[in-house]
């Protein structure tokens, strides 16, 4: 009886081991290897480096740029102070929440103090579901152009032109929304300022 049970279980155990080996080891290793060859930057986290080769961040994860010289990212609720990649989260506050209304009102006040006028895009005053959204809408970026231009001594038209250049369009014209990657844009700003100051 015991021998017959073992004989009946053997194919199941072999199949389990085989499926585990294929789906848990071989397939992931093959995909990782292909990704390293075909898309090495993306496979390694889309890490950006400065002129000296030092990593400055990932194009996929928001950082908190607060200085007037930089494009500010979407607000974050990830972690105690926000922008904590190990604590990705949203506020989960209901639309009628007083805390949510107060947070939005505070961000609107800050935006007005920075000179932004007119309607403010939602991504300037609300957090994303992950709290780590690396992108902004072009409208949110354009509203920050006067502050950036003043802080860097640049022409506003030049900053707006750079925003337009850095705006990524939807994939195939239909998947996603136009957006500006904040880290990539700020990197371009620093390169532009370095070139301008070098003249």
From TrEMBL:
Domain of life according to the entry: Bacteria
Subcellular location: Cell membrane
Pfam families according to UniProt: KdpC
InterPro entries (UniProt xref): KdpC
Membrane-related topology note: Single-pass membrane protein
Keyword annotations from UniProtKB, A to Z: ATP-binding, Cell membrane, Ion transport, Membrane, Nucleotide-binding, Potassium, Potassium transport, Transmembrane, Transmembrane helix, Transport
Annotated Polar residues bias: 85-94
Family according to the record: Belongs to the KdpC family.
Subunit note: The system is composed of three essential subunits: KdpA, KdpB and KdpC.
Record's protein name: Potassium-transporting ATPase KdpC subunit
Taxon lineage: Bacteria, Pseudomonadati, Pseudomonadota, Alphaproteobacteria, Sphingomonadales
């Amino acid at each position: 009886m015991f021998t017959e049970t073992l004989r009946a279980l053997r194919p199941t155990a072999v199949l389990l081991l085989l499926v585990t080996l294929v789906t848990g080891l071989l397939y992931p290793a093959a995909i990782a290897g292909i990704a390293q060859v075909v898309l090495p930057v993306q496979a390694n986290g889309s890490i950006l480096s400065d002129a000296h080769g030092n990593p400055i961040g990932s194009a996929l994860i928001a950082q908190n740029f607060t200085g007037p010289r930089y494009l500010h990212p979407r607000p974050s609720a990830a972690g105690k102070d926000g922008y904590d990649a190990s604590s990705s989260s949203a506020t989960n506050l209901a639309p009628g929440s007083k805390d949510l209304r107060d947070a939005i009102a505070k961000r609107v006040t800050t935006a007005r103090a920075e000179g932004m006028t007119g309607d403010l895009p939602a991504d300037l005053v609300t957090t994303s579901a992950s709290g780590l959204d690396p992108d902004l809408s072009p409208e949110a970026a354009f509203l920050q152009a006067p502050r950036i231009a003043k802080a860097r001594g640049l022409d506003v038209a030049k900053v707006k032109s750079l925003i337009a250049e850095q705006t990524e369009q939807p994939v195939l014209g239909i998947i996603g929304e136009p957006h500006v990657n904040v880290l990539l844009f700020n990197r371009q700003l620093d390169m532009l300022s370095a070139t301008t100051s070098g003249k």
